[in-house]
Amino acid sequence: MYTTSASAALTRRTLLRTAFTAAVLAGAAAALAPVLRARRPRQTLTPAPLTEETYRGRHIAVDLAGVRIDGRPLHVMRRADGSYLSGINHFQSFETPLELARAAVDELGTNQLALAAPHHG
């Protein structure tokens, strides 16, 4: 009887050790996955088009970095429904960043955007 319970304990111990080792390896892999993924070069399927235009005498540029009016950044926020809004007119949504920039130019009139936007903190 002693040998039967010893072999059962050894089997249980082996099973627990194997399960613990597998859990540690899975945790380490989950923790390292973002680091390893970040080291890979990113592929872009289609580069984002750069949109530039002059609207009412103001230069508007829309690209991946954001929206600029006369070289000054316009703070743009994306809504959950896919539309855009800005700090200039945050009561109205626009379908595209270009439409948003045109509305901001209309709202600004002859005024310029501030060089540095204030941060909440």
Question: Would you mind describing this structure in some detail?
Answer:
This protein has 121 residues and is of the alpha+beta class. It has helices at 2-39, 97-108, and strands spanning 51-55, 58-63, 66-69, 72-74, 76-78, 84-86. A hairpin with a 2-residue loop joins strand 3 (66-69) and strand 4. The longest helix has 38 residues, at 2-39. The mean pLDDT is 82.
The number of helical elements comes to: 2
Major sheet size, sense and barrel closure: 4 strands, antiparallel
Strand order of the largest sheet: 1-2-3-4
Q: What are the secondary-structure elements, in order, as H or E?
A: HEEEEEEH
Overall number of strands: 6
Helix content: 40-55%
Distance between the termini: 70 Å
Q: Any idea what the radius of gyration is? A: 28 Å
What is the residue-mean pLDDT, rounded to a whole number?
A: 82
Shape: rod-shaped
Q: Point out poorly predicted stretches.
A: none
% residues in beta strands: 15-25%
Structural class per helix/strand content? alpha+beta
